[in-house]
Amino acid sequence: MVATRFAVAVHILLLLATAPGGQLTSGRLAESVGTNPVVIRRLAGQLARAGLIRIRRGPGGAELAKPPGEITLGDIWQAMRRKGLPLLPVHRGPARAETGGPAPAIPGILRRAFDSAEAAMESDLSAVTLEELCQQLRAPAEAAHAT
Fold this sequence. Notes:
Strand order of the largest sheet: 1-2
Radius of gyration: 20 Å
Shape: elongated
Oligomer: single chain
C-alpha cells in the first residue's frame, strides 16, 4: 500500500512541478492519476505536513513548497511511509523457545537483511530529485517540437 501511495504522491508532485500557473484541482489531479479526488486530497495533506507542498482553498490550491531540485524521492518516500512500520515485515517466529534449531533466530536475521535492503532503497531514492524526473518528462516533448 505504501508503494502505491508513494507512486501517486510522486505523480502529484510532478504535475504540480510542471503545471503552468497552478491550475490543478484535486479533480484534475485525480483524473490524471486515475483515482478519486478524496485520495488526492488525503495524500496532499500528507505532502503538506511533510513540507513538500502548500495547499490553498479553491481551484489550483496546491503548489510546491520548494523548488523541484530540492525535493528528492527520498523526501516523498518519508512523507508517505508510516513511521515505525517496515516496508518488508517479518513474521514473529515460533511462539515457544523450545522449538530449538535455527528457527528462533530466523526472524532476527531476516529483519537485519530487510532493514539493510530498505536503507539501500532509501539511499537510492534520496539521490533522485523531482527536477530530474521533470527533465525526463520534458525530454520527449522537446524532441517532438524539434522535428
